[in-house]
């Protein structure tokens, strides 16, 4: 029996219990045997479950409750917008530098404030969700991003653009934390996260294509953000509708009630404060290893996307109007990898898959550096994206799988903020070094990041689910 069958078995059992039907003891023993069999296979993802003798296990899925189909679609749309947001700066950097007459080091400040927005969101994501609900919080995150785009679209002085990226980082981090937790707690989380992050890759493809097409035809670089405003308005409306009332549906009520039951069994009568939850998250091994892993992963990903075009212009005599599309190839590889290769995790397991992909990433990163040809570099970096793409959904599935429910949202928010910090610090280091040494430094920086990423992955526990 695979994970799909187990997820369906749990959902069907819960449905029967809620309608007054009973399950035979032999069926219960069979379910226990299946659970024990799965617990002995640590490489196969399982959605988080509750151990409570008084509460039936309910695992929401893509189709249960029925509105989850629209929620997953809304999450994919939001990821699509995030992909456009993150990939476009790489194609726009040469035009931004010319418009404001600034260098690599100064333009890198947009990634710094973007990271500050992510870090701030780590402290507020869970608080806002509990106070206002998931739907309202999600709409608020979209409003933050819309405000940032409006500022950037007006071609203001560069300091205002830097502030706009802070708003983008804050909104991006909140919707990322909410959607990662939602998708990660559904049945077959690796597959659903693969689709969601694959949608991010599709946005990553279109971002540089649209940005390059506009800027290379004489349209001001900032007008690209009028396109993203339209995308975020759609996310605001669709996401708000899809997630409205989520907390009142049976699976959400179950998770709330089962947490209460666990507290009663352990003698806990009060909910810990938000700062205490953050403290627990920061003391959690999975949170810390995951934060460093995503820091290096996203740092290398953003540095590759942001600086590879500049590298081709400086060292391969690339034409800015043509090589701007190379970034789309990188994101195209990421997208194909997330939709296609991610499924292999069900057979070989996330841990083995990521190790194999990481080795391939290192090889093709070297090739993108050493091959003295624009076309060869473009092909190599596209394959880097292909192999790098499945790493993120596999990692998020593993984190959601291992983190306990009481710190999950807080931990995911912290890991997301660490990822954005990497997405700011690694490109910033690349920009500072490029200012004095040249943009070739992109390659050793990315290689070092990938090595650290694999070391972190080796430190991830092999148990099927950690308990506190």
Structure description:
- The protein is an all-alpha fold and 468 residues long.
- It has two domains: 65-245, MFS general substrate transporter like domains (Growth Hormone, Chain: A); 274-467, Growth Hormone, Chain: A (Up-down Bundle).
- It is built from 20 helices and no strands.
- The protein has helices spanning 3-18, 25-39, 68-100, 104-107, 109-132, 134-153, 158-184, 189-216, 224-243, 250-266, 274-282, 285-315, 320-323, 326-340, 345-348, 350-370, 374-388, 391-402, 405-436, 442-458.
- α3 packs antiparallel against α7 (158-184) and α3 (68-100) runs parallel beside α8.
- It is globular, with a radius of gyration of 22 Å.
- The relative contact order is 0.15.
- Mean pLDDT is 82; it is low at 1-31, 34-55 and 256-269.
CATH first level of the largest domain: Mainly Alpha
Give the distance, in angstroms, between the N- and C-terminal Cα atoms. 28 Å
Estimate the global geometry from the Cα principal axes.
globular
Helix/strand-derived category reads mainly alpha
DSSP strand content: under 5%
Number of domains: 2
CATH architecture of the largest domain: Up-down Bundle
Helix percent band: over 70%
CATH homolog superfamily of the largest domain: MFS general substrate transporter like domains
The CATH topology of the largest domain turns out to be Growth Hormone, Chain: A
How many extended strands? Answer: 0
Rounded Rg: 22 Å
Order of helices and strands: HHHHHHHHHHHHHHHHHHHH
Subcellular location: Membrane
Main location: membrane
InterPro entries: MFS, MFS_dom, MFS_trans_sf, MFS_Transporter
Protein name: Major facilitator superfamily (MFS) profile domain-containing protein
